[in-house]
Design brief:
With 426 residues, the protein is α/β, with parallel strands linked by helices. It contains 18 helices and 15 strands. α8 runs antiparallel to α11.
Length: 426
C-alpha cells in the first residue's frame, strides 16, 4: 500500500478505513456563513478576504434583492498585500462604518480567510481591540473560515467554538439542562422542543441561539447532544467547560431521530412507555414519508465523495431505511468517538475512506459504476457529463433534514437526481 493511503481500524467498529492524503476538492469554510447568518438574527459576519471570497458568498447565497444579508467582505486589495496600507486601521474604519449603518447588530464575527492568513493579519487581536470599542452594545468575535486545510462545514464548527467561551457559567444551583448543538432551522428546533417537552426533558437550549443575548449557560450540569457530525472542536471546548456529551447517532431519518432522542431519554431516565408515547406518532409519520421513496431507491448503488462530514450518517440512512447499497463512503475527517454509534449501524462490508486523493477516488468511482454519486459541486458536472447521476452534498447542509418531519424531504433529495436521469434518457 502506498504512503498516501493506509488502512486503519476504527475503535468500536471492526471495519478497515482507507486513509488518503493528496489532492482535495472541497468548498472553504466561508460557506457556513450562508446558513449561520440566517440562524442568528442579530449576528453579522464580516469576512476579511479577497474579491473572490465576496463572489463565493454572493453566488452561494443567491443574495436577495429585497433584503440585506447579514454578511459582507472587507476586501484585501493589492495595497494590503504589498504592505503599503495599515490593514488594521482600514479594518477599524470598515467596522466603524458597518456598525453605524447597521445598529441592529448585536454580535459581529470577523471571519478569517486564506488572504488574511497569507498576510498574517491577527484577527484575534483585532477582535479584542474592536470589542473594547464596540461594547457593551456589540460583541466582536473572530474565527477562521479559511479553506486551506479545512472542509466547508468546519466553518460552522469554528464559529460555534468561538461562541463557547462567551457562554455564561452555569449557576451552582442550576437544574440539569440539555443543550442541542448545531445550526438547525427554526422549524426543526420547535419540533424538537415539543418532543423533549413530551419526554419531560428540560430545560432544553440550542447552540447557536437565535439572538446573541440568548447564549445559554454551560457547566457540569449541562448534557449536550450533537445535531451535526462535524462539530468536533465545539464539542471539545464544551467539555472543557464541564458539559457532558451524550453519544448517539444523528437525527437523520426515522430511525436516526428515534435513536438520537432515545439516547437523551436514557441519559435522563425517561421510562420506556413515556418514550414510546412521545415518539410513536412522529416516527410513524417519518417512516411513511420515507417509505414513499423506497421503491425508487432500493437496490440502487451510491458512492460518497468526502465533502461535508455528513457522509457516514447519510449512508446509514440510505442503507437501512431506503435499501440503497453504499459502495464507498468517503469523509474528510472521521471522528471515531462521535461517529461510533453510526459506524455500528453501517452495513457490513461498506468501504470507508478518510481524507482524499481525488484522482484515485475518481478511478474507484468509475470502476464501481454507481447509480448515484454524492459529491461537491466541482465534481458533479464532470461526472454528469460522463453519464453518472449526482447529488450535490452542499444541499444536505442547506436543506432542513433533521428530525421526523423532515425525513421524507431528506429521502426526496436522493430520489430527484435519479428521476432527472431517468427523464433525460427518454
Amino acid at each position: 500500500m502506498s504512503a498516501a493511503a493506509t488502512a486503519l481500524r476504527a475503535p468500536g467498529a471492526e471495519r478497515p478505513v482507507l486513509r488518503e492524503r493528496g489532492q482535495r476538492e472541497v468548498f472553504c469554510g466561508l460557506t457556513g456563513i450562508v446558513w449561520l447568518h440566517r440562524k442568528m438574527r442579530d449576528a453579522f459576519f464580516l469576512v476579511v478576504g479577497s474579491r473572490t471570497c465576496a463572489h463565493l458568498l454572493q453566488s452561494a447565497a443567491g443574495v436577495m434583492i429585497f433584503a440585506e444579508p447579514r454578511f459582507a467582505t472587507a476586501i484585501i486589495d493589492e495595497r494590503d498585500l504589498a504592505g503599503m496600507a495599515d490593514a488594521n486601521a482600514e479594518l477599524d474604519r470598515v467596522v466603524a462604518r458597518l456598525l453605524e449603518r447597521r445598529p441592529d447588530i448585536g454580535l459581529l464575527f470577523l471571519v478569517g480567510s486564506c488572504p488574511s492568513e497569507v498576510i498574517k493579519l491577527d484577527l484575534a487581536r483585532a477582535a479584542k481591540r474592536l470589542d473594547r470599542t464596540a461594547s457593551p452594545g456589540v460583541r466582536v468575535l473572530h474565527y477562521s473560515g479559511s479553506g486551506i486545510e479545512t472542509t466547508f462545514t468546519q466553518g460552522e464548527d469554528a464559529c460555534l467554538a468561538a461562541l463557547v467561551p462567551e457562554m455564561p457559567a452555569e449557576a451552582p444551583e442550576a437544574p440539569r439542562s440539555l443543550l442541542v448543538v448545531g445550526a438547525l432551522a427554526e422549524v426543526v428546533e420547535d419540533q424538537m422542543r415539543r418532543v423533549f417537552a413530551a419526554l419531560g426533558i428540560g430545560p432544553v437550549r440550542f447552540l447557536p441561539p437565535r439572538l446573541a443575548a440568548e447564549l445559554p449557560p454551560v457547566g457540569p450540569r449541562t448534557d449536550f447532544l450533537l445535531a451535526q457530525p462535524f462539530l468536533a472542536e465545539t464539542a471539545r471546548v464544551l467539555e472543557e467547560r464541564g458539559a457532558t456529551r451524550i453519544g448517539a447517532p444523528f437525527p437523520l431519518g426515522a430511525e436516526g431521530t428515534t435513536l438520537w432522542l432515545r439516547a437523551a431519554a436514557d441519559a435522563w431516565g425517561v421510562p420506556p412507555a413515556r418514550f414510546r408515547e412521545a415518539t410513536a406518532a412522529g416516527e410513524k409519520r417519518a417512516r411513511e414519508a420515507v417509505g414513499r421513496h423506497r421503491a425508487a431507491l432500493a437496490g440502487q448503488r451510491v458512492f460518497f465523495f468526502p465533502d461535508s462530514q455528513l457522509e457516514i450518517p447519510m449512508a446509514r440512512f440510505l442503507a437501512r431505511e431506503l435499501g440503497m447499497e453504499p459502495i464507498e463512503v468517503g469523509t474528510p475527517y472521521l471522528h471515531r468517538q462521535h461517529l461510533a454509534e453510526e459506524l455500528e449501524l453501517l452495513p457490513a462490508g461498506t468501504a470507508l475512506s478518510e481524507g482524499q486523493h481525488v484522482e484515485r477516488q475518481l478511478d474507484r468511482c468509475r470502476a464501481a459504476k454507481p447509480d448515484l454519486v454524492v459529491c461537491g459541486l466541482g465534481l458533479a458536472n464532470p461526472l454528469e457529463a460522463e453519464g453518472i447521476a449526482t447529488k450535490w452534498s452542499i444541499e444536505l447542509v442547506f436543506t432542513p433534514v433533521q428530525g421526523y418531519d423532515q425525513a421524507g424531504d431528506l429521502a426526496a433529495l436522493f430520489t430527484r437526481p435519479l428521476d432527472r436521469r431517468a427523464r433525460l434518457r427518454v
